Amino acid sequence: MEGLLATLTMFMPQCADAVLIISNENRRYFTGFVSSLGYLLVTRKEAFLLVDSRYQEAAAQQAKNCTVVPFRNLSDSLKELLTANMIRTVMLEGSAFTLNEAAKIEAVFAEVGVSAVKTDELDRIIGKMRIIKTPCEIELMRKAQRITEEALTETMKLIKEGVTEKDLALELEFRMLRAEAESVSFDLIVLTGAKTSMPHGVPGNHRVKNGDFVLFDIGATVDGYHSDMTRTVAFGKVDDTQRRVYQTVYQAQQNGLAAVRDGVTCGFVDDACRSYIDHAGYQGYFGHSTGHGVGLEIHENPSVSPGSDFMLRSGMVVTVEPGIYLPGKFGVRIEDMVVVTTDGCVNLAALPKELIEL
Ligand SMILES: [Mn+2]
Q: Measured in angstroms, how far is the CA atom of residue 337 from the centroid of ligand 1?
């Protein structure tokens, strides 16, 4: 066995002869193979990816570091594998099984004298692996970020009086997909005017007008890896309040970026952003956390949130995205995605952040 699966077997707890992984992200993480259903059984010596006929051919070509086992009847195939490999205990991926699925699989195991270990230990082991990104994973996220930035640069040229949020969101998505994005990272957020005060508003038929902020919270995926970036730009000239809020968020974000390095807590980074915003007179107008981990999922650990004593480590990828939201008026958020290093961070985003007045 090689790669991440080999690492997993090193951490496999003594109480289990094998583990069973069923979540789409974790199957993909270990095998590189994408499917909406599948069962990855990992023993101390070997990994088996059980897939149905829909994925049989593709899995045989694409799945890495495992033996592909096509199944017609999952129970029969599982029982055969468990018996042939003399497995007595299997640890389940606790967070991925529903109560019903766990009960069903336990009944199947019981038929061949195998017991299921239902704790969150496997989830914690995989979580510890996934939170530190390999250079290869970082490269994919860098590529996703580049595609996102190119799409935004092109789409910004289309901002004019009367264009709708939805128009801009569609233009962005089209450009990302036509480049080498596998998909968008999430339903793209493009908001204008008063709607920018809603951190996760949904693009609608609201039209851009002079003096409005336009907020883009966008990202693409490449080989499953996400990018995440927010830029807020102005269409036309902003007023003094808008400028002051923008500069406050801009500086708070700079402070947050400067705080990131191996060995500091997430709470420390959050405070670097939040205390600046509070002291500027906007206490209570920055409701969400400062950031989150990114990877195969758009929101991963760690959460860069107030008071968190979770320690950042080299190789983690987190966002730094403070914002100020004045209900009924407008909001500003600026977000970059960075790789934590021993003496700071590498910013994966390159697009400028100084206030742009189009
Ligand atoms: Mn984000």
A: 8
Burial of 61 (0-12, 13-18, 19+ CB in 10 A): exposed
Query: Which two tokens mark 99?
Result: 């109560």
- Pick from 216, 143, 142: which is nearest to 179 by CA? 143
CB 60 within 8 Å of CB 132: no
Which parts of the chain register pLDDT below 70? Answer: none
Give the per-residue pLDDT at 323: 98
Question: How far away, in angstroms, is 57 Cα from ligand 1 center?
Answer: 36
Set out the domains of the chain in order of their start, with CATH numbers. Answer: 3-130 (3.40.350.10), 133-347 (3.90.230.10)
Q: How far is the CA of 292 from the centre of ligand 1 (A)?
A: 7
Query: What's the pLDDT at 250?
Result: 98
The answer to whether 28 and 9 have CB atoms below 8 angstroms apart is no
**Residue 35 gets which letter from DSSP?**
-
Helix (H) or strand (E) holding 332: strand 330-333
- b/e map of 131-159 (b: 16 or more CB within 10 Å)? bebeeebbebbbbbbbbbbebbeebbeeb
Expressed in angstroms and rounded, the spacing between residue 21 Cα and the centre of ligand 1 is 27
216 C-alpha to center of ligand 1: Å? 11
Instruction: Name the nearest CA neighbour of 342 among 260, 261, 240.
Output: 261
Q: Cβ distance 257 to 338 under 8 Å?
A: yes
Determine how many CB atoms are found less than 10 A away from the CB of residue 191: 29
Taking alpha carbons only, the member of 233, 215, 133, 218 closest to residue 181 is 218
Distance of CA 289 from the midpoint of ligand 1 (Å): 10
Distance 218 CA to ligand 1 centre (A): 9
CA of 354 from ligand 1 middle (Å) equals 19
Between CA 52 and CA 173 the distance in angstroms is 32
Q: For residue 297, give both structure tokens.
A: 């999922």
pTM for this entry: 0.95
Which 8-state DSSP code applies to residue 281? I
Q: How far is the CA of 95 from the centre of ligand 1 (A)?
A: 23
Q: List helix spans (H) across 223-329.
A: 240-259, 266-277
What's the confidence (pLDDT) of residue 3?
Answer: 87
What separation in Å is there between the alpha carbon of 177 and the centre of ligand 1? 20
